[in-house]
Amino acid sequence: MSKTDRAHMEGIAVAKSIDGEIVGKDGRPRREIREGAGYVPANPLPREPAPWLVRQPETAREDQERFRPSEAEPLSGSWTSSVAMPSSSLPKPNIDMPRADPSNQEVNGLHRDPGHSEREVDLREREWEEKARGTWHERGDASHGKEPQPQPPEAEISRPKEGHGNGEALVKAVASAIEDAPRVEAMLLSSSSTGNVKAQLPILLASDLLFQTLVPSGYLQDLSQRCQVHIDITAEESLPSSVRQVVLSGTAASNASAAYWLQVGAARHMVKSAGVRPN
Description:
single chain, mainly alpha, three-stranded antiparallel β-sheet, 5 strands, 49% helix, two-stranded antiparallel ribbon, 279 residues, elongated
C-alpha cells in the first residue's frame, strides 16, 4: 500500500490540488506524502537530452556557412564539374562534313517534293484498297456462283426411301401413343388433388381435321364419353377460317387426357393423308 492511500485512510490527506499535489487538512501540501516511495507525479518532467545530442550554436553556424553557395560562382542550368581544367589542354576536333549537292540528291532520288511523296502514298493506298475489293468480289462471286454438284444415282434412289421411313416412324409413334394412353390417363388422374378441379382447356385445330375426320367418324363423341368432358367447337373473329377452337370443359385431369387423345386422332389423320399403311 502506498503512502498516499494510507494517508487517505488515516485522514491526513483529504484532497488534491489542480496541479495534482496532495493537500492535507490544513490546506498545505504534505511533503512527506509527495516525496514518499509510493508517490508518482501526475505530469513527469521532460527528460534532458544527452550532452552529445545537443548542438552548440557555433557548430550550427559553421554548417550553414559550409553549405551556403558562394557568390563568386555563377549559377547555371547546366551541370559543371568541380575539377577545373584548362580549356587549352583539350584539343577541339576539326571535322569537315561534306555538304550535300542538290544536283546529286535529285539524281539519286534523295531530294523529293513533299507533295509528290504524299501523292505516291495516296496512290499506293488506293491500289491496295482496289486489290482488296477485287479479291473480296471474286470470293463472293465464287461463293454465290457455285453450281449444284450432280448427285449420284444412289442419293436419288434413297429419297423415296427416306419419305417411306418417315411415314413408318409416324405410324410407330401413333401406335406407341395409343398403347401408352391408359397409363397417361391413370397418371393424370392420380397425379395430384388439383386434378379434380373444374376447368376449361381451349385447343386450336385445323377445320379440315375437325369436319372431315374427327366429327364424321364419331371420334369426338367417343372422346367425350371416355374422358367425361364436354366438347364445344367455336369460331372466333380473331382466328382464320382454316382454324377452329375446341373448348374442353371438365376436370383438369380429364381435360388433359382428352387433349392427349386429340393429339392421337390428329396423328392418325396425318398417317392416312400421307398414304402410309401400317404393317
